[in-house]
Amino acid sequence: xxxxxxxxPWHDVKAQWRQxxxxxxxxxxxxxxxxxxxxxxxxxxxxxxxxxxxFPFLANFTASRGIAFVNQxxxxxxxxxxxxxxxxxxxxxxxxxxxxxxxxxxVGEKERRSLESLLATPLSNGQLYLGKLIASSVPPIIASYIxxxxxxxxxxxxxxxxxGFSLLLASFVMATAQTLVMVTGAVIVSSQSTSVRxxxxxxxxxxxxxxxxxxAQAGTLLFANYTALWMIxxxxxVMTLLLLRLGIRLFDREHLLGRDIDQIDLRxxxxxxxxxxxxxxxxxxxxxxxxxxxxxxxxxxWITVLTILIGGLIVGWWGTANFSLxxxxxALDDLLTVEGIQEAISATNLISEFSxxxxxxxxxxxxxxxxxxxxxxxxxxAQLLLMTPIAIIAYVALQVGNIGINPWLxxxxxxLPHGIIELPAAIVATAQTMRMGDVILSxxxxxxxxxxxxxxxxxxxxxxxxxxxxxxxxxxxxxxxITPRVVVHFLxx
Length: 493
Fold this sequence. Notes:
Blueprint: H1 2-6, H2 10-40, H3 42-70, H4 76-97, H5 99-103, H6 107-111, H7 116-119, H8 125-158, H9 165-192, H10 196-202, H11 204-222, H12 226-250, H13 253-258, H14 266-277, H15 282-296, H16 298-322, H17 338-347, H18 356-375, H19 380-400, H20 407-414, H21 416-438, H22 449-481, H23 483-492
Helix pairs in contact: 2-8, 3-4, 3-8, 4-8, 4-9, 4-11, 8-9, 9-12, 14-22, 16-19, 16-21, 18-19, 18-21, 18-22, 19-20, 19-21, 21-22
């Protein structure tokens, strides 16, 4: 009876599908028109065809010569692990070149004065934007697929090599995901630029991060870690959804037609940054300004806490289940003195010097690097970087459980004395980094856009200098002078 009362009537479901079909029909019409126009332009089609057919030959030649060379030294496994990476490279080049289609989606038609008639149609901004986006995505995705297939055929003929089904599926998904991210970002650039030249210059902010990501994929494939490849693809799909939401929210046809030249208000931008970064006074700083910034980022704070704790525990548990350490790896007898702890830490080669200065500077460097990466990834990469030490702690804590030590007691003794200060500081910096990336998803009238990012960067500077740095300094002192003595007292008891 309860299910019947809350069930959705069948005619309502059909009505919703009908509304969706009515909304998407103009989108498909625009997409078909744009794709046909693209395929008619030989200046776009010919370079893509050359890349799709020519680059697989080059990759196949490189793979063949590489295998012949390394086999002389018995290192054939290395080059064989790079064959899947070359498959991703073959898919990347056609899609990266095809960005010219996405970059000219709006601003190109504006310069050719062919956009006014399309904008005058009764289509909504969302329908127009989605139609252009689909039309810009289909050619590069198809080009990537053709390049992968052509490359695999050549490898089959020359080296008698073919990937497994999981690797093949992951490669196609990865090619689709990275193409969608680049195209979605390029369409946003096109809709917000006033000239093709400006759009092409801004395209470097799309290509450069994707090339770094391509290098990360090489590392995962070198170790045959296809799970990490799927995680990267999932991250790219999430980024695509975020960029899609951003593009739809920012796109406005009147704004596109009415703006003829970009104006950079350096004085206004500097004023926004200065007002956000400089404190108004010591009392106002710690009792009004910093609490107000933290309240504004409370959503990002909760997301950061949940991500690093849940994600770190999951990764640590996975590492324990797949890469367990022998009991002999935990030589607790060497940790009975402070000097023994310092020597054991130095022997790991993870740090070059166990001192307050080195730990303090290293933590600053790590958080600033995370902030830089998070600014270009909506804060996602900053979350992953902070999750890494949590995952390591969880991994070690679960491992010591195998030798009879309570994992929670281990964390309380080895981590909590300094971590109770260090972790909140890192969470605040990471959450504000995520805020810097999130605010660009809001339109300028809602305090988003470029000035919103500048304002949040100023807030990051204020938080980092006046809150995070003092906490990191205190945590570094505790880690060097207090935590080792707590460990010695615990093990000697």
